[in-house]
Amino acid sequence: LLAKCLYRHHNDEQSAHDQLVNYLAKHEDGFFHASSLAFGANLTSPLIAGDFSRIRALKGSFDLDSNHIKRTARGKLEKVRLDGGPTKQRLETHQTHMADSIIFDGVGDGEAIAKLIRFYVTGIGKDCRSGGGTIGAVTVTGSDVDRSIFDEHGNLARPIPLSTYVRLQGEKPDAEFIERGRVKPPYFFDEDQVDKAIPNRIRRFVIV
Question: How many whole angstroms from its chain centre is CA 133?
Answer without folding.
Answer: 12
